[in-house]
Write a structure and sequence with these properties.
The protein folds into two domains: about 100 residues; about 30 residues. It starts with a helix and ends with a helix. Helix content is about 75%, strand content about 0%. It is built from six helices and no strands. It has about 140 residues and is an all-alpha fold. The relative contact order is 0.10. Helix 2 packs across helix 5 and helix 4 packs across helix 5. The protein is elongated, with a radius of gyration of 23 Å.
Length: about 140
């Protein structure tokens, strides 16, 4: 899968997400499987480098799902795995913030428009309110 770069990383993430979903719905996934996923994909330096270079979003999703599984009681993680997983997740988040940039993407603004800002909206809302008012009279 590593040969396929971005898509290979995304496919790995999808498979791991399915394992999470299987555990969430059936509680049939053994804890050692999650331990192994964490050690193989998130903690292993070589694999982290692969994801960082090819698809850091996929690795962030994997790490986040593992932490969620542990928090929800779906996975009773080995303490040493959890100790390594948490700082790895923070490292991955820092990659994401670094790549996101400033202002335009993260922490940008949201413009809110109301019916008074867009004349046709105000007219349409007025028509709807008249209709509702007339229906109440009936």
């Amino acid at each position: 899968m590593k040969e396929h770069g971005y898509k290979g990383a995304a496919d790995m993430m999808k498979q791991i997400t399915r394992v999470y979903g299987w555990e969430a719905s059936t509680q049939e996934v053994d804890d050692w499987i999650f331990d192994d996923i964490a050690e193989t994909f998130v903690i292993d330096p070589e694999m982290k480098q692969f994801f960082e270079e090819n698809n850091p979003h996929a690795l962030e999703e994997i790490a986040r799902r593992l932490l969620e599984a542990e928090q929800r009681g779906l996975w009773d993680a080995k303490p040493e795995v959890l100790e390594d997983l948490r700082p790895s997740y923070l490292e991955i988040e820092s990659w994401m913030e670094e790549r996101t940039g400033k202002g335009d993407f993260q922490g940008g603004n949201v413009n809110i428009y109301t019916s008074t800002d867009v004349t046709p909206w105000g007219e349409s809302i007025a028509d709807v309110l008249k209709f509702i008012h007339n229906r109440r009279k009936e």
